[in-house]
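Submission checklist for the structure archive. All mandatory fields must be present; incomplete records are returned to the submitter.

[x] Identifier: AlpA family phage regulatory protein
[x] Organism: Escherichia coli
[x] Residue count: 76
[x] Sequence attached
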Amino acid sequence: MQELAHKTLINRKTLLSMIPLSDRTIYNLEQRGEFPQRIVLTSRSVAWDLAEVENWIEAKRRSALKAARPGFMWSV
């Protein structure tokens, strides 16, 4: 089992202050396995592991791939 000591969980409000994406976009990324999975705390409360979110941000920062702009066609 994974060690749970020193884990910091963040709520939705904190996550959205760190990640400038909509709730729906984050949910879609989670469903595709492209974003850290939420942890269900109660029937009305979820959280995310801060370290996993920070690692995701850093991976995006290091990524050489740039997101294509809507309607933009790359010329070859």
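[x] Structure attached
Curator remark: Residues 9-62 form one domain. The CA atoms of residues 36 and 55 lie 9 Å apart.
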